[in-house]
Specification:
Helix content is 47%, strand content 15%. It is of the alpha/beta class and 252 residues long. The structure holds nicotinamide-adenine-dinucleotide (NAD).
Protein backbone atom coordinates (compact mmCIF):
# COMPACT_ATOMS: atom_id res chain seq x y z
CA UNK A 1 0.00 0.00 0.00
CA UNK A 2 1.26 3.50 -0.85
CA UNK A 3 2.56 5.48 2.13
CA UNK A 4 -0.22 8.09 2.07
CA UNK A 5 -3.13 6.01 0.70
CA UNK A 6 -6.47 7.58 1.72
CA UNK A 7 -4.79 10.36 3.69
CA UNK A 8 -5.68 14.01 3.28
CA UNK A 9 -3.12 16.82 3.42
CA UNK A 10 -3.21 20.59 3.09
CA UNK A 11 -0.19 22.25 1.45
CA UNK A 12 0.09 26.05 1.58
CA UNK A 13 2.16 27.86 -1.02
CA UNK A 14 1.81 24.72 -3.14
CA UNK A 15 1.86 26.55 -6.46
CA UNK A 16 5.63 26.73 -6.85
CA UNK A 17 8.98 25.51 -5.59
CA UNK A 18 9.21 23.34 -2.49
CA UNK A 19 5.44 23.35 -1.86
CA UNK A 20 4.69 22.23 -5.39
CA UNK A 21 7.28 19.41 -5.26
CA UNK A 22 5.87 18.23 -1.92
CA UNK A 23 2.22 18.34 -3.08
CA UNK A 24 3.15 16.26 -6.13
CA UNK A 25 5.13 13.71 -4.08
CA UNK A 26 2.29 13.33 -1.55
CA UNK A 27 -0.17 12.69 -4.38
CA UNK A 28 2.16 10.23 -6.12
CA UNK A 29 2.18 8.26 -2.87
CA UNK A 30 -1.62 8.13 -2.66
CA UNK A 31 -2.62 11.26 -0.74
CA UNK A 32 -5.49 13.58 -1.57
CA UNK A 33 -3.95 17.02 -1.51
CA UNK A 34 -5.66 20.37 -0.93
CA UNK A 35 -3.46 23.20 -2.14
CA UNK A 36 -3.77 26.78 -0.98
CA UNK A 37 -1.83 29.48 -2.76
CA UNK A 38 -2.13 33.21 -3.07
CA UNK A 39 -1.66 32.94 -6.81
CA UNK A 40 -4.58 31.06 -8.40
CA UNK A 41 -2.91 30.29 -11.71
CA UNK A 42 0.10 28.62 -10.10
CA UNK A 43 -2.02 26.54 -7.70
CA UNK A 44 -4.15 25.38 -10.62
CA UNK A 45 -1.01 24.30 -12.48
CA UNK A 46 0.06 22.06 -9.58
CA UNK A 47 -3.39 20.43 -9.49
CA UNK A 48 -3.25 19.83 -13.26
CA UNK A 49 0.19 18.22 -12.92
CA UNK A 50 -1.06 15.93 -10.14
CA UNK A 51 -4.15 14.95 -12.14
CA UNK A 52 -2.03 14.19 -15.22
CA UNK A 53 -0.19 11.66 -13.03
CA UNK A 54 -3.49 10.07 -11.92
CA UNK A 55 -3.50 11.73 -8.49
CA UNK A 56 -6.21 13.63 -6.63
CA UNK A 57 -5.87 17.29 -5.68
CA UNK A 58 -7.92 20.43 -5.19
CA UNK A 59 -6.92 24.06 -5.23
CA UNK A 60 -8.41 26.98 -3.37
CA UNK A 61 -7.05 30.50 -3.60
CA UNK A 62 -5.76 31.22 -0.09
CA UNK A 63 -3.77 34.02 1.47
CA UNK A 64 -2.30 32.58 4.67
CA UNK A 65 -2.36 36.00 6.33
CA UNK A 66 -6.18 35.90 6.24
CA UNK A 67 -7.58 33.71 9.01
CA UNK A 68 -10.96 33.18 7.30
CA UNK A 69 -9.26 31.98 4.11
CA UNK A 70 -6.99 29.61 6.04
CA UNK A 71 -9.98 28.14 7.88
CA UNK A 72 -11.89 27.79 4.61
CA UNK A 73 -8.98 25.82 3.12
CA UNK A 74 -8.95 23.38 6.04
CA UNK A 75 -12.77 23.12 5.92
CA UNK A 76 -12.57 22.31 2.20
CA UNK A 77 -10.28 19.35 2.94
CA UNK A 78 -12.66 18.05 5.60
CA UNK A 79 -15.82 18.58 3.53
CA UNK A 80 -14.49 17.07 0.31
CA UNK A 81 -12.35 14.27 1.69
CA UNK A 82 -13.86 13.52 5.10
CA UNK A 83 -11.11 14.78 7.41
CA UNK A 84 -7.56 16.02 7.68
CA UNK A 85 -4.46 13.89 8.33
CA UNK A 86 -1.78 16.51 8.06
CA UNK A 87 -0.38 19.67 6.56
CA UNK A 88 2.71 21.25 5.10
CA UNK A 89 2.68 24.93 6.07
CA UNK A 90 5.07 26.18 3.46
CA UNK A 91 3.88 29.58 2.20
CA UNK A 92 6.58 32.15 2.78
CA UNK A 93 8.17 35.35 1.54
CA UNK A 94 11.58 36.93 1.93
CA UNK A 95 12.37 40.62 2.39
CA UNK A 96 14.68 42.80 0.31
CA UNK A 97 18.40 42.21 0.99
CA UNK A 98 19.88 44.75 3.39
CA UNK A 99 20.97 45.33 6.99
CA UNK A 100 18.34 45.52 9.75
CA UNK A 101 18.69 49.27 10.21
CA UNK A 102 17.52 49.86 6.61
CA UNK A 103 14.31 47.81 6.88
CA UNK A 104 11.01 49.71 6.84
CA UNK A 105 7.76 48.98 8.68
CA UNK A 106 6.01 47.66 5.58
CA UNK A 107 8.73 45.02 5.11
CA UNK A 108 8.40 44.03 8.78
CA UNK A 109 4.64 43.58 8.36
CA UNK A 110 4.88 41.64 5.10
CA UNK A 111 7.66 39.27 6.17
CA UNK A 112 6.35 38.60 9.68
CA UNK A 113 2.72 38.35 8.57
CA UNK A 114 3.26 35.71 5.91
CA UNK A 115 5.93 33.60 7.55
CA UNK A 116 4.86 33.80 11.20
CA UNK A 117 1.20 34.83 11.37
CA UNK A 118 0.47 32.56 8.39
CA UNK A 119 2.02 29.57 10.16
CA UNK A 120 0.16 30.43 13.37
CA UNK A 121 -3.19 30.77 11.54
CA UNK A 122 -2.53 27.52 9.68
CA UNK A 123 -1.72 25.46 12.77
CA UNK A 124 -4.57 27.05 14.73
CA UNK A 125 -7.04 25.89 12.08
CA UNK A 126 -5.46 22.48 11.51
CA UNK A 127 -4.72 21.14 15.00
CA UNK A 128 -8.39 20.80 16.12
CA UNK A 129 -9.12 18.83 12.92
CA UNK A 130 -6.20 16.48 13.59
CA UNK A 131 -7.33 16.00 17.18
CA UNK A 132 -10.84 15.14 15.92
CA UNK A 133 -9.25 12.54 13.65
CA UNK A 134 -7.29 11.02 16.55
CA UNK A 135 -3.88 12.15 15.29
CA UNK A 136 -1.89 13.43 12.36
CA UNK A 137 1.25 15.31 11.44
CA UNK A 138 2.19 18.89 10.59
CA UNK A 139 5.42 20.11 9.03
CA UNK A 140 6.20 23.83 8.95
CA UNK A 141 8.70 25.23 6.47
CA UNK A 142 11.27 27.22 8.40
CA UNK A 143 14.78 27.74 6.97
CA UNK A 144 18.43 27.41 7.85
CA UNK A 145 17.80 31.09 8.66
CA UNK A 146 15.59 29.77 11.47
CA UNK A 147 18.67 28.15 13.05
CA UNK A 148 21.51 30.62 12.46
CA UNK A 149 21.85 34.29 11.51
CA UNK A 150 21.43 35.28 7.86
CA UNK A 151 23.04 38.62 7.00
CA UNK A 152 20.76 40.85 4.94
CA UNK A 153 17.56 39.07 6.01
CA UNK A 154 17.05 39.95 9.68
CA UNK A 155 13.25 39.99 9.50
CA UNK A 156 13.09 36.76 7.52
CA UNK A 157 15.49 35.11 10.00
CA UNK A 158 13.44 36.41 12.94
CA UNK A 159 10.24 35.03 11.44
CA UNK A 160 11.83 31.65 10.67
CA UNK A 161 13.33 31.37 14.19
CA UNK A 162 9.82 32.11 15.48
CA UNK A 163 8.35 29.40 13.25
CA UNK A 164 10.66 26.94 15.01
CA UNK A 165 9.47 28.27 18.38
CA UNK A 166 5.82 27.80 17.39
CA UNK A 167 6.65 24.34 16.09
CA UNK A 168 8.44 23.11 19.21
CA UNK A 169 5.81 24.52 21.56
CA UNK A 170 2.74 23.32 19.69
CA UNK A 171 4.45 19.93 19.34
CA UNK A 172 4.81 19.39 23.07
CA UNK A 173 1.23 20.55 23.64
CA UNK A 174 -0.39 17.91 21.42
CA UNK A 175 2.14 15.07 21.11
CA UNK A 176 0.31 12.90 23.67
CA UNK A 177 -2.86 13.19 21.59
CA UNK A 178 -1.18 11.72 18.52
CA UNK A 179 -0.36 14.91 16.63
CA UNK A 180 3.31 15.22 15.60
CA UNK A 181 4.58 18.68 14.66
CA UNK A 182 8.03 19.34 13.21
CA UNK A 183 9.71 21.83 10.93
CA UNK A 184 12.20 21.63 8.08
CA UNK A 185 15.06 24.09 7.70
CA UNK A 186 16.27 24.11 4.09
CA UNK A 187 19.52 25.64 2.92
CA UNK A 188 19.47 27.35 -0.46
CA UNK A 189 17.13 25.52 -2.85
CA UNK A 190 16.67 26.36 -6.52
CA UNK A 191 13.22 28.05 -6.59
CA UNK A 192 11.81 31.44 -7.51
CA UNK A 193 12.57 32.66 -3.98
CA UNK A 194 16.18 31.51 -4.33
CA UNK A 195 16.48 33.45 -7.60
CA UNK A 196 15.29 36.59 -5.81
CA UNK A 197 17.77 36.01 -2.93
CA UNK A 198 20.56 35.33 -5.39
CA UNK A 199 20.01 38.36 -7.55
CA UNK A 200 19.37 40.58 -4.47
CA UNK A 201 22.72 39.50 -2.98
CA UNK A 202 24.55 39.76 -6.31
CA UNK A 203 25.91 36.19 -6.08
CA UNK A 204 25.98 33.42 -8.67
CA UNK A 205 24.42 30.01 -8.04
CA UNK A 206 27.95 28.53 -7.95
CA UNK A 207 29.08 31.02 -5.30
CA UNK A 208 26.04 30.26 -3.15
CA UNK A 209 26.49 26.52 -3.69
CA UNK A 210 30.10 26.79 -2.52
CA UNK A 211 28.92 28.15 0.85
CA UNK A 212 27.30 24.76 1.48
CA UNK A 213 29.78 22.02 2.52
CA UNK A 214 28.16 19.69 -0.02
CA UNK A 215 29.28 22.15 -2.73
CA UNK A 216 25.92 22.91 -4.34
CA UNK A 217 22.46 24.25 -3.61
CA UNK A 218 19.51 21.91 -3.10
CA UNK A 219 16.56 20.78 -5.23
CA UNK A 220 12.92 21.15 -4.16
CA UNK A 221 12.51 17.38 -4.41
CA UNK A 222 15.21 16.89 -1.75
CA UNK A 223 13.19 18.99 0.71
CA UNK A 224 9.94 17.31 -0.33
CA UNK A 225 11.49 13.91 0.51
CA UNK A 226 12.21 15.04 4.09
CA UNK A 227 8.76 16.63 4.48
CA UNK A 228 7.05 13.46 3.23
CA UNK A 229 9.09 11.34 5.61
CA UNK A 230 8.14 13.60 8.54
CA UNK A 231 4.46 13.40 7.51
CA UNK A 232 4.63 9.61 7.26
CA UNK A 233 4.34 6.94 9.96
CA UNK A 234 8.05 6.21 9.49
CA UNK A 235 8.71 9.34 11.58
CA UNK A 236 6.36 8.19 14.36
CA UNK A 237 8.81 9.07 17.19
CA UNK A 238 9.97 12.41 15.74
CA UNK A 239 8.33 15.30 17.60
CA UNK A 240 9.11 18.99 17.90
CA UNK A 241 12.25 18.93 15.75
CA UNK A 242 13.63 21.60 13.45
CA UNK A 243 15.42 19.40 10.91
CA UNK A 244 17.96 20.96 8.58
CA UNK A 245 18.22 19.82 4.97
CA UNK A 246 20.99 22.21 4.06
CA UNK A 247 23.97 20.38 2.60
CA UNK A 248 25.78 20.98 5.90
CA UNK A 249 25.41 24.79 5.92
CA UNK A 250 24.25 25.07 9.54
CA UNK A 251 27.13 22.84 10.69
CA UNK A 252 29.87 25.15 9.42
N1 LIG B 1 14.32 28.40 -1.73
C1 LIG B 1 15.09 28.47 -0.66
O1 LIG B 1 16.33 28.63 -0.77
C2 LIG B 1 14.49 28.34 0.72
C3 LIG B 1 15.36 28.08 1.79
C4 LIG B 1 14.82 27.94 3.06
C5 LIG B 1 13.46 28.03 3.26
N2 LIG B 1 12.64 28.28 2.21
C6 LIG B 1 11.20 28.36 2.50
O2 LIG B 1 10.50 27.48 1.67
C7 LIG B 1 9.16 27.94 1.51
C8 LIG B 1 8.79 27.86 0.04
O3 LIG B 1 9.61 28.74 -0.69
P1 LIG B 1 10.17 28.43 -2.15
O4 LIG B 1 11.65 28.49 -2.06
O5 LIG B 1 9.53 27.21 -2.69
O6 LIG B 1 9.78 29.76 -2.91
P2 LIG B 1 8.55 30.16 -3.81
O7 LIG B 1 8.56 31.65 -3.83
O8 LIG B 1 8.61 29.41 -5.09
O9 LIG B 1 7.30 29.60 -3.00
C9 LIG B 1 6.59 30.32 -2.03
C10 LIG B 1 5.12 30.09 -2.30
O10 LIG B 1 4.37 30.69 -1.26
C11 LIG B 1 3.30 31.40 -1.86
N3 LIG B 1 2.89 32.46 -0.95
C12 LIG B 1 3.60 33.56 -0.59
N4 LIG B 1 2.88 34.32 0.24
C13 LIG B 1 1.70 33.69 0.42
C14 LIG B 1 0.54 33.97 1.16
N5 LIG B 1 0.43 35.07 1.91
N6 LIG B 1 -0.49 33.08 1.12
C15 LIG B 1 -0.40 31.97 0.38
N7 LIG B 1 0.66 31.66 -0.37
C16 LIG B 1 1.70 32.51 -0.34
C17 LIG B 1 3.85 31.93 -3.17
O11 LIG B 1 2.81 32.26 -4.07
C18 LIG B 1 4.67 30.74 -3.62
O12 LIG B 1 3.88 29.80 -4.32
C19 LIG B 1 9.12 29.36 2.07
O13 LIG B 1 8.52 29.35 3.37
C20 LIG B 1 10.59 29.71 2.20
O14 LIG B 1 10.83 30.66 3.20
C21 LIG B 1 13.11 28.42 0.95
Amino acid sequence: MARFENRVFVVTGGGTGIGRATAIQLAVEGARVVIGNRNAELGGDTVAEIERGGGIALFQRTDVTDDAQVRALVDLAVERFGGLDGAFNNAGVEGPMGPLHTMDDATYDRVLDTNLRGTFFSMRAQIPRLLERGGGAIVNNSSVAGLVGFGGQALYAAAKHAVNGLTRTAAVEVAAQGVRINSVCPGAVRTEMFERFRSGGGLSEEELGALHPIGRIGRSEEIAALVCWLLSDEASFVVGQALAADGGLSSV
